[in-house]
Fold this protein.
Amino acid sequence: MVGTIFDIKHFAIHDGPGIRQTIFFKGCPLKCWWCHNPESQNPEPQQYFQTNRLDGQVFTKEKTVGYPISVPDLFQIIEKDRVFFEESAGGVTFSGGEPLMQFEFLEAIVQKCNSAGIHTAVDTSGFTSKKNIEKLSEMTRLFLYDVKIINSNEHKKYTGVPPGPIIENLLWLDKNNINVTLRFPVIPSITDTGENMSALKTLLSQLKSIHNLDILPFHSMSKAKYKRFNQPYKMGNTPPVSDDALWAMKQDFEALGFEVKIGG
Ligand code: SF4
């Protein structure tokens, strides 16, 4: 079984409990305007040119983002960090892109980690079939689950897909007491509008077993990547969200009974 990934981050501390290794899968069905990893969206490996300047000279090199890897080869890399997982109650997080887009590969590597006693988390947009969510919930220990925009037209406009399956899957996970940490990207004038915040709070107040939420503030550091991959950057000169606004939002969510972290 072979999958396509584009990066592996060692010693990650914001993608689940403890010290983690985060594996970034290539391919995502969404096209969020603010995506911090635009190179993750295309499921295939992509060529690009990297330009470096040295002593007034410009050097350009062709590079590829994304590569195929087998389950045993990936597991070998994961296992090398096992001591850090054990010391910190950490593990491995499958992210992307959307890891559920390569469902069979994801399933195979999660099962391999389970047999070796390594904790797994899956970072997902939730835009997948109910069957996939149900199957994965029997295997993985934690979902990091995005909630973005509740209004259907707005969600379609800013991500390219409707929110229906995402919300349905979330309600199913909640009903079945599956371990979920929600992740809310705060995107100025898109996800933090009064209308969206109010609709989001209504959804959150319906949840019975999910009580953790990470607030992920927008940043524009990925702007250069859009240029590199010839993708339009639609966020213009959107400024970062102020600390005051983030703290106010944190308090709002805490008032609904959530344990809230800023930054994941
Ligand atoms: S779901 Fe995540 S990876 Fe996919 S486009 Fe949106 S921000 Fe990017």
Notes: DSSP finds nine helices and eleven strands in the chain. The first strand starts at residue 2 and ends at 12. The two ends are 31 Å apart (CA to CA).
